[in-house]
Amino acid sequence: MLVGEVMSHDVEIINPDFTLQEAAKKMKDLDIGYLPIGENDKLVGMITDRDITVRATAKGLDPKKNKIRDIMTKKVVYCFEDQPVEDAVKKMEENQIRRLTVLNKNKRAVGVIAIGDIAVTGEGKLTSEVMENVSAHH
User: Fold this and answer.
1) Phi, psi angles (nearest 5°) of residue 85
2) Which fold would CATH assign to domain 3-135?
3) Cα(36)–Cα(11) distance, rounded to whole angstroms?
4) How far apart, in whole angstroms, are the C-alpha atoms of residue 99 and residue 73?
5) pLDDT 10s per residue in the chain (138 long)?
6) Per-domain residue ranges for the chain?
């Protein structure tokens, strides 16, 4: 099974100069917990709801004033839509993450694959392995 067959096709990219509050509002409105960050037509990072609530709060940052770039994860881990789901799982395990931005052959973001997407594939063994390996370090 390929990543493109199970990924969520809705992907929103946010600018790193948006405030933390704007990112949180976008996540709330879209009912998601992850946003890829893009600048000048290039992925430059990612941010999660956990980053905003834990990382920003721990630093005492003002969500109305501080920018996404102040707390975003700069390492961009991604996969391609035509890769096997097992490749995405391996990247999640290696990087201890629960979601990956999915790119097409032109390196354009076309979706997101999450552990939950893998769970609905019917690959129960694969899902339990990734959950165990990703959650082990969280």
Assistant:
1) -55, -35
2) CBS-domain (3.10.580)
3) 8
4) 13
5) 999 999 998 888 999 999 999 999 999 999 999 999 999 888 999 999 999 999 999 999 999 999 999 999 999 999 999 999 999 999 998 998 889 999 999 989 999 999 888 876 665 455 555 556 555 555
6) 3-135
pTM for the whole thing? 0.80
Q: Which amino acid is at 23?
A: A
Q: What is the DSSP string of the chain?
A: -BHHHHSB-----B-TTSBHHHHHHHHHHHT-SEEEEEETTEEEEEEEHHIIIIIIHHTT--TTTSBGGGT-B----EEETTSBHHHHHHHHHHHT-SEEEEE-TTS-EEEEEEHHHHHTTT-HHHHHHHHHHHHTT-
* Residues recorded for the chain: 138
Q: How many CA atoms lie within 13 A of 121 on its CB side?
A: 25
* Cα–Cα distance, 7 to 100 (Å, whole number): 9
